[in-house]
Automatic annotation (TrEMBL):
<feature type="binding site">
    <location>
        <position position="118"/>
    </location>
    <ligand>
        <name>UDP-alpha-D-glucose</name>
    </ligand>
</feature>
<keyword id="KW-1133">Transmembrane helix</keyword>
<dbReference type="Pfam" id="PF03552">
    <property type="entry name" value="Cellulose_synt"/>
</dbReference>
<protein>
    <submittedName>
        <fullName>Cellulose synthase-like protein E6 isoform X1</fullName>
    </submittedName>
</protein>
<feature type="active site">
    <location>
        <position position="147"/>
    </location>
</feature>
<feature type="transmembrane region" description="Helical">
    <location>
        <begin position="26"/>
        <end position="46"/>
    </location>
</feature>
<dbReference type="GO" id="GO:0016760">
    <property type="term" value="F:cellulose synthase (UDP-forming) activity"/>
</dbReference>
<dbReference type="GO" id="GO:0030244">
    <property type="term" value="P:cellulose biosynthetic process"/>
</dbReference>
<feature type="active site">
    <location>
        <position position="461"/>
    </location>
</feature>
<feature type="transmembrane region" description="Helical">
    <location>
        <begin position="533"/>
        <end position="552"/>
    </location>
</feature>
<comment type="function">
    <text>Thought to be a Golgi-localized beta-glycan synthase that polymerize the backbones of noncellulosic polysaccharides (hemicelluloses) of plant cell wall.</text>
</comment>
<feature type="transmembrane region" description="Helical">
    <location>
        <begin position="572"/>
        <end position="601"/>
    </location>
</feature>
<dbReference type="GO" id="GO:0000139">
    <property type="term" value="C:Golgi membrane"/>
</dbReference>
<keyword id="KW-0472">Membrane</keyword>
<feature type="binding site">
    <location>
        <position position="147"/>
    </location>
    <ligand>
        <name>UDP-alpha-D-glucose</name>
    </ligand>
</feature>
<keyword id="KW-0961">Cell wall biogenesis/degradation</keyword>
<dbReference type="GO" id="GO:0071555">
    <property type="term" value="P:cell wall organization"/>
</dbReference>
Length: 745
């Protein structure tokens, strides 16, 4: 019987196809020329070592070390450009081959951490779009993990569960693609007339009605939020509110599990009489003396709680600010997992992160187009994907810690639903689940080590993905034409830098920990994957060569020390080539990926600022943590913006407001130093010291990138500009550096 089934599948269309990018040969040729120029640069450094003064020798050594580091990093980045793989799933083949009965149940996890930083309205928009997936609702369960332990969030979720009774039928009836009410209504406001339902009277009426319901819910939630507590009259509508008392605090409360919509309840239906998906609120127990392991802890509690309630074999993990924006994503993803010949060893399918609030030229370079279209697909070419914490579908088994070989031994079926009929009441299920979400539950277990997400690293996602890959699983990166998930990008420099500091720090921590891909992955994953991971893990140390390139050239101008060859010398060529080829290539890559020249320039600015601030302080903090001087933290990014900030953001004016003063001081000091260097350098060139030309170009580039910094220092006076306090500090520091360079060394 079994054989016959296999026979039928042989020769049948595949559920997904993998294609490799073209022109790889040409690229390899081009990359080799850069490699040659890098080697020549290093050769030049070693053979032309200056011995005249000690200062000169030290400066030279610093340049040599920086160039070695840049060179090594460049080699690492080649791994993700070697074998770029694009995936194309075939939803139609899937639907032809499997009927709904055979499809696996999907548990969707949404994490939120604080009702002030992450507005409940945003959270429920994500929940509502997840509930509205075009998928049999008896197979969908949506879990909200609330690390804020807030009744305000619970209230919003409860309200959303009522609104969903209208929203879901509406989405179905008019086959909406965007199923986040907020996103849908905002888009509708912008281009109502271009909407194809324009003349449809029925649509028009219903749309107005639903919109009114949404507005009412929104205003209820906002009023409650403003009051800071749920009104007495409202509390009577759900017994779940009893879980909160005046003593409940964010970091000190018992575990709360409330099934708000019970997927088995025949009365839990929408306006069309169709079953609603299950909705569960979870706030794991928090106590002051117990570490809660941030998002990783929340995810692990959800894995356990959901296994008790629905136990879907597939898990979709979302941040509260990432809403599903394509109703068919689950089916597309199933093409990978359910492919008969290649699906069994896939642990997870990761989608890229997209944002709906980017400015025309992506002011803070949040979109990472080249990363999404090329680099991540480049790791995929080696058979793995980076798990990025959101927009990722996991096989429950692999996420929970199974090794592929054990899994294979256990079952050779494609995803099957293992949940057996459960006759327990909602209250019984709530109580049973609560026990899985207590502070002590994990004591003496392998949770956070070999089971679930890994603890102790602020980018729990990357480390966990790596651990899963090393357990023998493959993973897929899929970047579909129509965006699958859309989130919120930072709208101030501060948030952008804090986020990158956490990332660079967490990733470097992975590199230094036992999870270092070269060691942990040795003999388990191929070298392409090991290197691919390191493209990101090494952001923090990359700050050091960047800083020396930003500091030494201007200081050496002042002293009159040349660091690069004469423009008339042949040695000038490899430097010039490496510079032009790298930047030219990066620009082409960006343009091919659909970016504009201006966005590319913004990316260069943000890269410079990130490397010299976020990554540098990330580096320092990682080192102090290694020495045991401080502890891991997870600074949740603020997703709320004031009108003032929003206006500046829309006008693409950099908002320096709120920036940590140490990061700002660093930024301004470097900007001033290079401005000064440039002026002195120009004087030297005029005096005929042509040898300074490369140094001048470097400083000139840094000055160009920093134009908005000078503007914020000397011209602007709005709230997003730089305070005089920081300006004075930076002036003193920059002058001190010049003074030391001139007189001390
Ligand atoms: O104690 C915590 C802290 C955070 N979160 C949630 O984690 C998510 C990510 O937090 P956010 O502040 O938005 O961080 P980002 O920098 O935007 O997140 C990126 O980086 C994180 C790792 O640093 C990944 O976990 C995320 O998926 C990825 O989107 C949010 O949904 C939070 O609610 C928790 O549930 N509990
Ligand atoms: Mn986020």
């Amino acid at each position: 019987m079994r054989e016959k089934e296999d026979d039928e599948i042989v020769g049948a269309p595949l559920l997904f196809e993998t294609k490799e990018a073209r022109f790889r040969g040409a690229y390899k040729l081009f990359a080799s020329t850069i490699l040659v120029s890098i080697s020549l640069i290093l050769f030049y450094r070693v053979t032309n070592f200056p011995t005249a003064t000690r200062t000169e020798s030290w400066a030279w050594i610093a340049m040599l070390v920086s160039e070695i580091l840049f060179g090594l990093y460049w080699i690492i980045t080649q791994s993700v450009r070697w074998r770029i793989a694009f995936q194309s799933p075939s939803k139609h083949t899937l639907l032809q081959r499997y009927d709904e009965e055979k499809m696996p149940a999907v548990d969707i996890f949404v994490c939120t951490a604080d009702p002030k930083l992450e507005p409940p309205l945003m959270v429920i928009n994500t929940i509502l779009s997840a509930m509205a997936y075009n998928y049999p609702s008896n197979k969908l369960s949506v879990y909200l993990s609330d690390d804020g332990g807030s009744e305000l969030t619970f209230y919003a979720l409860f309200k959303a569960s009522i609104f969903s009774k209208h929203w879901l039928p509406f989405c179905r009836k008019f086959n909406l693609q965007t199923r986040s009410p907020h996103a849908y209504f905002s888009a509708l406001n912008h281009n109502y007339h271009s909407h194809h339902h324009d003349h449809d009277d029925d649509f028009h009426k219903q749309c107005l009605f639903i919109k009114k319901l949404y507005e009412e819910m929104k205003s209820d939630i906002e009023t409650t939020l403003a009051k800071g507590k749920v009104a007495h009259s409202e509390r009577n509508f759900h017994k779940g509110f009893k879980e909160w008392s005046s003593k409940t605090k964010k970091q000190d409360h018992h575990s709360i599990v409330q099934i708000i919509i019970d997927g088995r309840d025949k009365n839990a239906v929408d306006e069309d009489g169709i079953q609603l998906p299950r909705v569960v609120y979870v706030a794991r127990e928090k106590r002051p003396n117990y570490p809660h392991h941030f998002k990783a802890g929340a995810m692990n509690a959800l894995i356990r709680v959901s296994s008790e309630i629905s136990n879907g074999p597939l898990i979709l993990n979302l941040d509260c600010d990432m809403y599903p924006s394509n109703a068919d994503t689950i089916q597309e993803t199933l093409c990978f997992f359910m492919d008969e010949s290649r699906g069994q060893n896939i642990a997870y399918v990761q989608f890229p992160q997209n944002y709906n609030n980017l400015t025309n030229n992506d002011l803070y370079a949040s979109s990472c187009l080249a990363t999404d279209m090329i680099e991540l697909a480049g790791i995929s070419g080696h058979g793995a994907a980076l798990y990025c914490g959101t927009g990722c579908f996991h096989r429950r088994e692999s996420l929970s810690g199974a090794h592929f070989k054990d899994y294979k031994a256990k079952l050779d079926h494609i995803m099957i639903n293992t949940k057996i009929e459960d006759n327990r009441t909602v209250d019984e299920l709530n109580e049973a689940s609560k026990l899985l979400a207590t502070c002590t539950y994990e004591h003496g277990t392998l949770w956070g080590k070999e089971m679930g997400l890994v603890y102790g690293i602020p980018v729990e996602d990357i480390a966990s993905g790596l651990a899963i890959t090393c357990r023998g699983w493959r993973s897929i990166y899929y970047n579909p034409e129509r965006k699958a998930f859309i989130g919120v990008a930072p709208t101030t420099l501060d948030v952008a830098l804090v986020q990158h500091k956490r990332w660079s720090e967490g990733m470097f921590q992975i590199f230094l920990s036992k999870y270092c891909p070269f060691i942990y992955g040795h003999a388990k994953i191929n070298i392409g994957i090991q290197m691919g991971y390191c493209v990101y893990l090494l952001w923090a140390p990359l700050s050091l060569p960047t800083l020396s390139y930003a500091i030494l050239p201007p200081l050496c101008f002042i002293r009159g020390i040349p660091l690069f060859p004469q423009p008339t010398s042949l040695w000038f060529l490899p430097f010039a080539y490496a510079f032009v080829a790298n930047n030219g290539y990066s620009l082409c890559e960006a343009l091919i990926c659909g970016s504009t020249i201006k966005s590319w320039l913004n990316l260069q600015r943000m890269r410079f600022i990130r490397r010299t601030t976020s990554y540098f302080f990330g580096f320092i903090d990682t080192i102090t943590k290694q020495l045991g001087l401080s502890q891991t933290n997870f600074v949740v990014t603020d997703k709320v913006v004031t009108e003032d900030v929003q206006k500046r953001y829309e006008k693409e004016i950099i908002d320096f407001g709120g920036c940590s003063s140490i990061m700002l001081t660093m930024m301004v000091t470097l900007a001033l130093l290079n401005l000064l260097g440039l002026l002195v350098g120009i004087r030297r060139i005029i005096m005929g010291q042509l040898i300074m030309i490369i140094q001048i170009v470097i400083s000139a580039m840094i000055v160009m990138v920093n134009l908005p910094v000078y503007e914020a220092l000397f011209i602007r006076s709005d709230k997003g500009s730089i305070s005089s306090n920081v300006m004075i500090k930076s002036f003193v520091l920059a002058s001190l550096a010049c003074f030391i360079a001139t007189f001390v060394f």
